[in-house]
Amino acid sequence: MISSLPASGRRACRLVGAACLLLSLAGTSACAARHARRGGALDAELAQILPRPSPGASAARLDASAWREGRQRLADLRRVVEGAGPRTLRVRLALREPRTGHVLEARGAIAIAPPALATDARARTGSASLDPEGALRMILLGPGGTTALDLWARGDRFRFAVPALDLLKRGDASTPRAALRGLPVDFLRWWMLHPAAGTLLWYERAASTDSFVLRDGDAVIDLRINDRGLIGARRTTWSTAEGARRRQLDEEVVIAEGTGCGNVRYAQASTGLLVTVICEAEERDRAPDPRAFVDPDAIRPGDGS
User: Fold this and answer.
1) Widest CA span of the chain, in angstroms?
2) Are 234 and 221 a contacting pair, CB within 8 Å?
3) What is the pTM of this model?
4) DSSP string of 157-217?
5) Residue 135 backbone zone (phi > 0: left; psi -120 to 50: alpha; other: beta)
6) What does the pLDDT look like over 7-21, one tens digit per residue?
7) Which phi-psi region, left, alpha or beta, contains residue 144 (left: φ > 0; alpha: ψ -120 to 50)?
């Protein structure tokens, strides 16, 4: 993939290796997804450290009382996530190239406006600058401070940019999920803004672990959290094209130390991508600049708005 770029692109790739890796993975063929390992590199670890009973084995025990318990625990988890409020995370990120094992590193910040904040902001100020579904802005810097990646998401819209390569991808709810292969945009929005979102399909509590199965649009999520705060999730995305045979597009797995500023590992089955995110600091006392959540393409050069 990189060798097919012009010389200027190859030079840019040497400067922003992490972003180029993502672009290379985005070009992975559909065949890779069909033959991918389930859940990628973290699937076995997720099953070991956060085991979940089989839904079929315990379906008979999912009575009305257990269902109410599951709904209550899910609601409690959502309140914890929403209660984190607006914040900025300073992160260090390492991506392992799946073919060579080479690790590429980047640093940056993630500005988060949770859905609750967006709703409250409208009520307080009447401003429509944010969306009730929340907003996200992530900027990663490569060697020398070069912008390696700029991701903006608000509601169901997103913008994914690699400035050094003059590459820009935009989308919304109508964008085919297959077009996002290799770009974990949906996953990042789900994980950063509303990781407990979705319709509850199944619940079980065993071995001090709450296990949920949720449906979120065209994805099914296996979400687990134990009493020590360790969180794991497997998100399986399915194609929903009208008239087409339903097929699995991808599986993504995340294991996190908790809902706050903790270390997170992420794996994508279709590409073999493995990402480790180390949270170095979290700023909650001061909300992110609202301009961070404005569509970058809507900002006129030099106006600062």
Assistant:
1) 64
2) yes
3) 0.76
4) EEEEEEGGGTEEEEE-TTS-GGGGTT--HHHHHHHHH-TT-SEEEEEEEETTEEEEEEEET
5) beta
6) 544 444 554 555 555
7) left
